[in-house]
Write a structure and sequence with these properties.
The complex is a heterodimer of chains A (872) and B (108).
Chain A: H1 11-20, H2 23-43, H3 46-59, H4 63-66, H5 80-101, H6 103-131, E1 143-148, E2 154-155, H7 158-165, E3 170-186, E4 189-198, H8 202-205, E5 210-212, E6 224-228, H9 229-235, E7 245-248, E8 251-259, E9 272-275, H10 280-283, E10 290-298, H11 304-317, E11 330-334, H12 354-381, H13 383-395, H14 400-437, H15 449-475, H16 479-484, H17 491-527, E12 537-541, H18 544-548, H19 550-558, E13 563-569, E14 579-584, E15 593-600, H20 604-608, E16 612-615, E17 635-639, H21 640-645, H22 650-653, E18 657-660, E19 663-671, E20 686-690, E21 697-702, H23 707-721, E22 730-731, H24 732-739, H25 741-775, H26 777-785, H27 790-824, H28 835-862, H29 865-869
Parallel strand pairs in A: 4-9, 6-8, 15-20, 17-19
Antiparallel strand pairs in A: 1-10, 1-11, 2-10, 3-4, 3-7, 3-10, 5-8, 6-9, 7-8, 12-21, 12-22, 13-21, 14-15, 14-18, 16-19, 17-20, 18-19
Helix pairs in contact in A: 1-3, 2-3, 5-14, 6-12, 6-14, 6-25, 12-15, 12-17, 12-25, 13-15, 14-15, 17-25, 17-27, 17-28, 19-23, 25-28, 27-28
Chain B: H1 9-21, H2 27-37, H3 44-57, E1 60-65, E2 76-81, H4 83-101
Antiparallel strand pairs in B: 1-2
Helix pairs in contact in B: 1-2, 1-3, 1-4, 2-3
The chains are: A alpha+beta (872), B mainly alpha (108).
Chain lengths: 872, 108
């Protein structure tokens, strides 16, 4: 930068001058102006010189300086602006006339583009929504969820302990517990709704907006309750309910605040939010009470020193040396990653994955490519018709560039016409799409500026992608050839068109194969014999009261004939978190292998209907039960994989004593392998140990009828035996299906969008075949005259397309086989992609092609050659 | 038919100045001569436009040259009178002289 110097004229004035002056004149005039300024500087003060400089700059503003200099060649452009406006109107008129003249073509084109745009915009909305999760918290960069091992939830001691230890680094720590549905009583009415409990600092950490009430006091008192506006209107009919009293499971809660609705892109979702203050089941901080999502609001960004300090501290509390191998790993997760980048046990529900985002984006991209290809193919195949127009325009003086823009503009008209249809369709389809994709995208999003600017830029990009090639082809025609009527499509152009068709079919075949593979894998998962019966099993968390009253609770439940079995265990078969090392007694300590285990009572095997291969369950043959007292060797039942690991047959394993850590356990039975985690994982050595203490879940097997009544009965009994226990039940098969909800969604979305992709490809072929039939009418007529049969003609027409489809299959089948095999590689238990899937996909592709071209092909083949040739 | 020359009063003035400046004529120098020597207040932009018009008429040619520090490194457009221009001036002068000679009382 030059310092402000009095011997230089005002920069602003110079800038203004450059702004208006035509480029060719800037040099000389600016020179004159500056020289004049220097002259003035010698005579007058710099101020006056500058004023005169300004004056001169302004005086130079005239028609002479602003108008662009004419170059002698651009004679045709003489009338400038006016001229192009007239031409623009002409282009528009011609485009509309052409569209009206060829209604079928226009319809196919618009339909293809509309389908493509609608699908991809919906998918992009989904992707955008996924990426926007939890971004609305003001302090999002400093909000972390902390957890141990591979669990998302933590014991209730973790949050408060960390806050006490690092009160400087940690501004707030907050625990949150999810309780599914709860029963509410308000005045005389009862309803169930979702509820979570949280520490009072909830609102200091998260940015949820209050409609009434305030964030400092909302959760400060025991039994205070915050409700969302939506829930308030739904259940109370008004938002004027602050200070009202609501009963939840017999306890009185006071409503202290109304929240504006929770954004749909929040991972934390609830209708009611209760205070954790003084809750009996939280008050005592302990390691065994692990049902809390713990969030920390840090004073500063997360740094490694805090990470290591926290790890050391937590492991100290757990009495594990932090540098040892057994040290509990601590997971820090920024709230922005909660939705897409976290995959631990007991996530908040509702979580998704980045791979889903990638997969969906690619589908959107593929569909868009197909829609563009359609346009390109249709527009270029029509080039013969437009050729005369191009020739005429050129003769009249149109330049190549003008024609290029004309045809590019035409694609703009088509794309934006389709965009309008798409928008209407999206408005209409959004609710169904939300259901399909399992998200809540609000309709108001469609009226936002960001959505419209996105649509606009998408439209421009698609217009260009689909329009630029036809524009080049069409604008390149030589007037002499076109007007003489002899434009033969050149070889290379045909090659490109064929290449595009092959690409289209490759994409749709790939989507078809993927759909089939995903669908088959999903049904494989759902129908796989898990090694136990997952249906009709309800489970819920229990507390000390229920543990103490177990016998009476069990007997009461047993009195109901619809309850088939009941068992207590420390985890369900689907969320086993405990692992330990086991080995044969005579083996060395290196031969310890990791074994998952759960502790259960004697009813567990029977309730889960596991298959005993050898030995017995925890009930001895004489009806007595294995010992659980101190000092006795505990009985365990192992799975087949574990017996193999121990190098015993199931029969040999019975009554053997093995090492379990430092202790010894006695194998009393071997059960067939069962799946305790997602089918993505291999079955690991598994051990069910017998025990009567420290159980955390009650599992109840129900009959198939009157399930609601039975559940009500169980809740009553639970409440009677353990008054403070929330009856937060879940079905085991729900938990199972939740593991595969990504696959289920993927399967649904793939089937819908591959259908659309195929439809678009079909439309493209439909358009092409009709133009081909038209262009080759004479050739076919002559063939007929010379004796070709209808069959010959049909073969001739279809073989052209079938060759392309065949080539597409050659590309698509191996590549989709490879890609889907890759996808399946995630699953330890998976289908193999059999030839039947590939055959099915090929047959479907060929059949669809034949079906599409059949009408036109037959019509052409049957046409009377005389009609075509007569006019020559 | 004899070619006719059209020169406005101001154009004639500018053309004369350019002819007199001989290779040193550009927008500002012409302006300065008119201002200082003829004591006629004038716009730079008017001179500039006029120079271009004369060039269009073929009485002047121009080239870009002669950047100086004073001009912020910008070049000048130097104007030179063409034969056509000279003939136009001659023609105008002849006409004037012929008319002057018709005025007896003014004769020296």
């Amino acid at each position: 930068m030059r310092p402000k110097d009095k011997s230089y004229p005002s920069k602003l004035a110079t800038r203004i001058f450059r702004l208006y002056c035509s480029e060719e004149l800037v040099e000389e005039i600016e020179g004159d102006l500056k020289e004049r300024f220097q002259d003035h500087l010698e005579q007058f003060s710099s101020k006056k010189a500058n004023r005169l400089y300004w004056l001169n700059v302004l005086k130079f503003f005239s028609w002479h300086t602003i108008k662009p200099r004419k170059s002698y060649t651009s004679y045709s452009n003489q009338s400038g602006l006016n001229h192009s406006v007239i031409m623009f109107r002409n282009y528009f008129k011609i485009a509309i006339r052409n569209a009206k003249k060829h209604k079928a073509y226009t319809a196919i084109n618009l339909l293809g583009l509309t389908l493509g745009l609608t699908s991809s915009i919906l998918i992009l909305l989904y992707v955008n929504h996924q990426l926007s999760y939890d971004q609305f918290h003001e302090k999002q960069d400093k909000i972390y969820r902390i957890s141990l091992y591979d669990w998302a939830i933590t014991p209730n001691i973790v949050g408060p302990a960390l806050k006490r230890a690092y009160s400087e680094e940690i501004q707030y720590s907050m625990r949150m517990a999810f309780f599914g549905k709860r029963i509410f009583n308000y005045e005389d009415e009862a309803f169930t709704s979702t509820m979570i409990y949280a520490d009072p600092d909830f609102f200091n950490v998260f940015s949820f907006q209050f409609l009434s009430g305030n964030k400092q006091s909302a959760l400060a008192n025991p039994n205070s309750l915050v409700v969302t506006k939506e829930a308030a209107l739904k259940y109370f009919g008004t938002t004027d309910i602050v200070n009202s009293t609501v009963q939840i499971a017999g306890e009185n809660y006071q409503i202290t605040g109304i929240l504006n609705n929770i954004p749909t892109n929040s991972t934390i979702q609830f209708d009611f939010l209760g205070s954790l203050v003084d809750k009996r089941w939280v008050k005592k901080e302990q390691w065994s009470n692990a049902m809390f999502h713990t969030f920390l609001l840090l004073s500063d960004d997360l740094n490694p020193s805090l990470e290591s300090k926290v790890k050391t501290h937590l492991n100290e509390l757990l009495e594990i040396p932090a540098d040892s191998e057994d040290a509990a790993p601590v997971n820090w997760l920024n709230i922005k990653d909660l939705h897409l980048r976290s995959n631990l046990s007991f996530e908040m529900g509702n979580t998704s994955s980045m791979s889903g985002v990638y997969i969906f984006s690619s589908i959107a991209l593929l569909i868009l490519i197909m829609a563009c290809i359609n346009y390109v193919n249709l527009a270029t195949s029509r080039s013969i018709e437009r050729a005369k127009e191009v020739g005429m325009r050129k003769v009249m003086g149109a330049r190549k560039k003008q024609l290029y823009y004309q045809f590019l503009g035409e694609s703009l008209i088509y794309v934006f016409g389709s965009l309008i249809f798409s928008f209407a369709l999206i408005l209409y389809l959004l609710p169904s799409f939300n259901q399909l994709a399992g998200v809540t995208i609000e309709v108001s999003k469609l009226w936002s500026l960001s959505f419209w600017s996105g649509m606009l830029s998408l439209g421009l990009i698609i217009s260009f992608l689909s329009g630029f090639y036809p524009a080049i082809v069409l604008s390149a025609f030589k007037p002499v050839n076109t007007l003489k009527g002899s434009i033969a499509a050149k070889g290379e152009k045909k090659l490109l068109k064929k290449g595009l068709i092959v690409l289209q079919f490759t994409i749709s075949t790939f989507l078809l194969v993927s759909t089939l593979v995903i669908g088959e894998q999903l049904s494989f998962i759902q129908n796989k014999d898990l090694g136990y019966a997952k249906d009709q099993i309800v489970y819920f968390s229990i507390n000390d009261d229920l543990r103490k009253n177990f016998e009476s609770f069990k007997n009461q439940l047993k009195s109901n004939p619809r309850i088939h079995a009941i068992s207590f265990s420390n985890s369900t078969p689907l969320n086993v978190g405990s692992r330990g090392g086991t080995k044969r007694l005579e083996h060395s300590s290196e031969q310890f292998f990791t074994t998952s285990y759960l502790k259960a009572d004697e009813h567990f095997i029977e309730l889960m209907q596991m298959k005993i291969l050898a030995g017995r369950s925890f009930v001895r043959n004489d009806g007595s039960i294995d010992d659980s007292e101190e000092g006795k060797i505990p009985a365990v039942i192992i799975n087949e994989t574990m017996s193999q690991q121990l190098e015993w047959t199931p029969e040999e394993a019975i009554n053997k004593t093995i090492n379990y850590g430092k202790n010894e356990v006695l194998i009393v039975g071997v059960v067939a392998d069962f799946h305790s985690s997602s089918l993505k994982n291999n079955i690991e050595p598994f051990m069910i140990t017998y025990g009567t203490s420290n159980h955390r879940y009650a599992l109840i097997k129900l009959g198939t009828d009157q399930i609601n009544e039975t559940l009500g009965f169980i809740e009553d009994q639970t409440l009677a035996s353990a008054p403070g226990l929330p009856f937060d039940f879940r079905f085991l098969d729900d938990q199972f299906n939740r593991m595969y909800r990504v696959e289920a969604r993927l399967s649904r979305i793939f089937s819908i969008f591959s259908t659309i992709a195929i439809l678009i490809a079909t439309l493209g072929i439909l358009g092409l075949i009709s133009y081909m039939a038209l262009n080759r009418a004479k050739e076919i007529s002559i063939r007929k005259v010379l004796g070709a049969s209808v069959q010959n003609i049909l073969t001739l027409i279809s073989s052209d397309f079938l060759k392309l489809v065949g080539l597409a299959l050659l590309i698509a089948l191996p590549s989709s086989y490879f890609i889907m095999n890759n996808w399946l590689a995630d699953y330890a238990y998976r289908i193999t992609i059999g030839t039947e899937i590939l055959i099915y996909a090929s047959v479907a592709s060929i059949a669809i092609t034949l079906l599409t071209i059949s009408y036109q092909a037959i019509k052409t083949a049957l046409s009377n050659p005389a009609n075509v040739l007569r006019s020559e | 038919m004899k070619k006719r020359y059209y020169l406005g009063e101001f154009e004639e003035l500018v053309l004369l100045v350019v002819a007199g400046l001989q290779e040193k004529a550009y927008g500002l120098s012409v302006t300065q001569i008119i201002e200082k020597d003829l004591k006629r207040p004038i716009n730079m932009s008017a001179v500039h436009t006029c120079l271009y018009r004369l060039e269009e008429k073929g009485y002047l040619t121009s080239k870009l040259d002669g950047a100086t520090n004073k001009r912020g490194g910008r070049r000048k457009r130097l104007f030179l009178i063409t034969t056509e221009g000279k003939m136009a001036l001659q023609e105008v002068r002849n006409q004037r002289q012929f008319l002057w000679s018709k005025i007896p009382s003014f004769q020296a």
